[in-house]
Amino acid sequence: MLNEATIQTIKSTVPVLEVHGTAITTRFYQLLFTNHPELLNIFNHANQKQGRQQTALANVVYAAALHIDKLESILPVVKGIAHKHRSLGVRAEHYPIVGENLLAAIKDVLGDAATDEIMGAWAEAYGVIADVFINVEAEMYRESEEQAGGWADYRAFRVVRKVRESDVITSFYLVPQDGRALALYQPGQYVSIKVNIPGDSYTHIRQYSLSDAPGQSYYRISVKREDAIGDHPAGKVSVFLHEHIEEGGELLLTAPAGDFVLDTDDARPLVLMSGGVGLTPMISMLNTVTASNPQRQVTFIHAARNGQVHALRDHVEELARLHPQLKVYWCYEQPSQADEAAAAHHHTGFIDRHWLSEVLPGVDAGFYYCGPTPFMKAIHGALLDCGVQEKDIHFEFFGPSQSLA
């Protein structure tokens, strides 16, 4: 436990962290990868280049300082990060390395303002915060390995089917090379995939949502090919999977993880909303609820640029034919002439509060959504404007968390 003097010293740095947090975390990653380049085998290089990881870490450091006297209040945030850490292979021995470089970054950025008192308090506080993460993650590692069909670290899987779902999304059906049982998972969870790309010095790890209901003889991921657009570079792993991983190929997976999961005990109407490839966890949830609770009212809303990039449409419409309680709506930003001719969508442009209020089953429901950040911000604001309570809203970012304010 931290003494009162240390707590007050940490709290006194909150305004400084609010201003300089991202500068500190940017410097932290520079130091970390210079001193320990082997950790580039764990971290997502793209998130580093785009600054998303730095901003996410700055937010966590800020929250930890703000709530240093009641860290239990940020336990949900800790658990979400811990799921990602467990899936990536972050271990207890990494925390002293992180602490050393984080403290050095604070000193570098704050200069003379980082007094001995402040640095000593942060060294002590970091130890307490690290212990929280280490203990939570240790339990997750244990549960992952000891569950039926579970495993530690990475396990080899074989691609038994590769299916083109749209112009940009392809599904990979994966079974264990060892032929042993598969661990169950909760709808909405993801797996980490590690690949070695020829010519690259470090391995690449990416997390992909499982896009089918649990209990199958396979895991399925549905991957969007991220091509270069303007200053945004192509996605190394997604392009590699699309171009080089064929049926019969091998991929290394960690066991399923994630805290964005469907509440299967909730009997109220369910609203699933997605933008682009954000439909992958929504499909897992949809497949699960139509199979296990076929009487539950479900509204499924998906936004895409047009029909050519709309994946798994036929599958969802077939479910709607089989389950009258399932209502389906398509929103196309830029429908093609073929889309217009076939009346293939229900709304043109972006999802807005007015249209959303017309198709929702009401506000007393469970709301789940995933997609690009602008989509998520729009949906979040629209739901609140419609009168939905925060406690009924559930969402997940692809990559480091960001603000939806």
The arrangement of helices and strands along the chain is HHHHHHHEEEEEHEEHEHEHEHEHE
Largest sheet: number of strands, sense, barrel closure: 6 strands, antiparallel
Unreliable residue stretches: none
Order of neighbouring strands in the sheet with most strands? 4-3-6-1-2-5
Write down how many β-strands occur, each being a DSSP E stretch of 2 or more residues: 12
Binding site for heme b: 85
Active site: 95 (charge relay system), 137 (charge relay system)
Binding site for NADP(+): 276-281
InterPro entries: FAD-bd_FR_type, Flavoprot_Pyr_Nucl_cyt_Rdtase, FNR_nucleotide-bd, Globin, Globin-like_sf, Globin/Proto, Hmp, OxRdtase_FAD/NAD-bd
Report on the architecture of this protein.
- This protein has 405 residues and is of the alpha/beta class.
- It has 3 domains: 4-146, Globins (Globin-like), CATH 1.10.490.10; 155-253, Elongation Factor Tu (Ef-tu), domain 3; 270-396, Nucleotide-binding domain of ferredoxin-NADP reductase (FNR) module (Rossmann fold, 3-Layer(aba) Sandwich).
- The protein is 43% helix and 18% strand.
- It has 13 helices and 12 strands.
- Strands 4-3-6-1-2-5 form a 6-stranded antiparallel sheet, covered by helices on one side. It has a 6-stranded parallel sheet with strand order 10-9-8-7-11-12, sandwiched between helices.
- Helix 1 packs across helix 7, helix 2 crosses helix 6 and helix 6 runs antiparallel to helix 7.
- The model has no long low-confidence stretch (mean pLDDT 92).
- Keywords: Detoxification, FAD, Flavoprotein, Heme, Iron, Metal-binding, NAD, NADP, Oxidoreductase, Oxygen transport, Transport.
- The active site is at residues 95, 137.
- FAD binds at residues 190, 206-209, 397-400.
- NADP(+) binds at residues 276-281.
- Residues 152-263 form the FAD-binding FR-type domain.
